[in-house]
Please model this.
Amino acid sequence: MTKIGIILDRARPGGARAAAHRRLIAGELHAADVRQQAALSLMSEFEDFRIVEPGDDNRPVPDLLLDQASAWRTALTARRSAAEVAK
Model:
């Protein structure tokens, strides 16, 4: 079974570093991860605190993150299909 983990950090001193450390731990556990990180401000980059509206400097970040996650999904789907055929 493939599991997905999401690391969320609030804007606290050292939060980005803590998220990076947790990502390394996930890698040691052989979890697939994406390289891109999104640092979006809840106050300025969300509409009504629900809809993501990144500023101009962050606009490509969510798309890049989702592209990387999609690539893993494609790779893991093919791997899972091959494992099911081998059973």
Q: What stands out?
A: The mean pLDDT is 80.
